[in-house]
Amino acid sequence: MPGPAADARQVPFRNAKEEIRARIEVSEGGGDPQRLGGRGQRQIVWRNVVLMSLLHLGAVYSLALIPKAKLLTLLWAYFCFLLSALGVTAGAHRLWSHRSYKAKLPLRIFLAVANSMAFQNDIFEWSRDHRVHHKYSETDADPHNARRGFFFSHIGWLFVRKHPDVIEKGRKLDLTDLLADPVVRFQRKYYKITVVLMCFVIPTLVPWCAWEESLWNSYFLASILRYTISLNISWLVNSAAHMYGNRPYDKHISPRQNPLVTLGAIGEGFHNYHHTFPFDYSASEFGLNFNPTTWFIDLMCWLGLATDRKRATKPMIKARKARTGDGST
């Protein structure tokens, strides 16, 4: 799963016609060779190295504040973690990247707000990179190619500029469905503002105003520590879930079934299944089991805010396991 942008200069939002025109220009020899660099070069983004180092140092310091904090503050930090996680799992991932179900406007707005709290790139960029990841998994066009090692697939991919293949293949994808969604366009246009408010300001102010927690504790626990933990759990889907676990559905691909990642990432660790059946809204054969994101989507369907959940059929799953699985369960 993507994290904060590794590109120092974010591409400004373009409407559908402008986006298509830009892709044509690139295919005809446009593009910025200085930005892309040589095909074999690794250009370190020192800004990201410094910021991520400071963020993790702040998270380590935050651990010392836990005994001094009020219980409500810790519960609030966990609530913010769950909210931001849903913005990624139910929002950017299962809804916008894979279109595995449909969501009505109120739910899309909620998920976009939660996604800004997650601060892992805006919905458009997250979904674009994730579609590239699925289509070109474990190649140079994969933004967090696990063949380059655990560190690279976990966080190192954010420390270097994207491989030229990632950019080239990303520009060739059909992203008109994302560009056509006004919620996606609005969030992308005002992303920096919404991130500051949702990821840092609101998580910090609520404990301070509502139950008189110190501003210091509120900031480091509900913002810094919560954000750092949520990032690393999301990154484990890119790293650990591509390296450790069994492959009951397709032994020929890297993604694995990883129970620990599943628990942390609220249902996203059934990764061998997900890469085998990426259209399945549950991202798992087991439905509601160990899958809070699926619980949430099902609840939204019950409330009438979501529809058209896509699912792999039992015969389809059984046949695939028999044909390409590793024999595990």
Question: SSE layout and pairings?
Answer:
Layout: H1 16-27, H2 33-36, H3 46-63, H4 71-97, E1 102-103, H5 105-118, H6 123-135, H7 150-154, H8 164-172, H9 176-179, H10 182-189, H11 191-210, H12 215-238, H13 259-264, H14 271-276, H15 292-302, E2 306-307, H16 314-324
Antiparallel strand pairs: 1-2
Helix pairs in contact: 3-12, 4-5, 4-6, 4-12, 5-11, 11-12
Keywords: Fatty acid biosynthesis, Fatty acid metabolism, Iron, Lipid biosynthesis, Lipid metabolism, Membrane, Metal-binding, Oxidoreductase, Transmembrane, Transmembrane helix
Protein name: Stearoyl-CoA desaturase 5
GO molecular function: iron ion binding; stearoyl-CoA 9-desaturase activity
- Give the helix level as a range of percent: 55-70%
Cross-sheet strand order for the largest sheet: 1-2
Shape: globular
Structural class: mainly alpha
Order of helices and strands: HHHHEHHHHHHHHHHHEH
Radius of gyration: 20 Å
For the record, give the distance between the C-alpha atoms at the N and C termini, rounded to a whole number: 25 Å
SS elements, strand count: 2
Question: What is the residue-mean pLDDT, rounded to a whole number?
Answer: 90
The largest β sheet comes out as: 2 strands, antiparallel
Short synopsis of the structure:
This protein has 329 residues and is an all-alpha fold. The protein has helices at 16-27, 33-36, 46-63, 71-97, 105-118, 123-135, 150-154, 164-172, 176-179, 182-189, 191-210, 215-238, 259-264, 271-276, 292-302, 314-324; strands at 102-103, 306-307.
